[in-house]
Amino acid sequence: MGKILATASAAVAVGCSIGRRIVLHLAHEHPERFRALIGLETAAHTDAYYDLTWLDRPDVHGGMVCAGVVSGLLAPTAPTAERWETLWHYMQSGPGVFKGDLHFYMIDGDIRDRVDQIDIKRCPLFLLTGEYDYSCTSEGTVDVAKRTGATATIMQGLGHFPMSENPEKFISYLLPVLEKIRALKS
Amino acid sequence: MIDKIAGLVNADSRLVRRGRFVDTTFMIAIDDAFTLLCIQEGRVTKVTTGPFITPDYSFCLRASRSVWEKFWQPLPPL
Q: Chain B: residue nearest A159 by CA?
């Protein structure tokens, strides 16, 4: 990570879900390292709205239950092939991996107490959130935007996994943001 | 919708496969209209409309008709 940060000053980092929480941490701790940061499905914190203990126990099929936990987060309009590819990603991880990811998502990555310290003058921050996402809600994104001055866009017809559940629709939201970043400075 | 539910569920091969270990009877309540649905190996095998005196079921999903009708739209409102 240190090597990446040392060479990334011309880069734009994009993170989704757990990745966008990392984006907020980068915006807070290493803003000078990036040309811009983009958070997909951004909120400063997510309360546990399901029972994580089901994700890692020997009597339950981990792949099936991990996919089950996230399946409702996709927009109902996601194309079938992309929907199942997204769920297939969640069926792949080893025992306990997704549970650990969600521990970061809900506990270790909680950045509510530092969001106000993010300075978008040091690194522009853009937020894109799918309207069907009930894990990182539109309200959670607007809250981060208000507290940081970041630009927020709610994406119609998309859920929590915009880049994999409906890439064609997502790119129509991402490209204008990249154009804005290109226009900011050369 | 209730009169079509068995055909819709049983024609959805992905749903039936996902529910292949489900064997239960549950109730759907639309206002005060009650229906028992029997599920065997993920398929709806029996739909019985009330009223009932002492119905036997594992769980009940209750909502008003207006809520069910919103939920049963091809693309429910957010």
A: B78
Residue A118 CA to chain centroid, in angstroms?
17
- Measure in Å the smallest separation between the Cα of B11 and chain A Cα atoms: 17
Count CA within 13 A, CB hemisphere, residue B21.
0
Element spanning B7, H or E: helix B5-10
**Nearest C-alpha in B relative to A84:** B14
* List of E strands, chain A: 12-16, 36-40, 125-130, 151-155
- Contact in structure between A157 and A131 (CB atoms under 8 Å): yes
Render pLDDT for A9-58 as a digit per residue (tens, 0 to 9).
689 999 999 998 899 999 999 999 999 999 999 988 887 777 888 999 99
pLDDT digits (tens, 9 = 90+) for B14-63: 999 989 999 999 999 999 999 999 999 999 999 999 999 999 999 999 99
Q: How far apart are CA A99 and CA A79, in angstroms?
A: 27
A76, B75: Cβ pair inside 8 Å?
yes
Cβ atoms of A127 and A147 within 8 Å: the answer is no
Number of other residues whose CB lies within 10 A of the CB of residue A51: 8
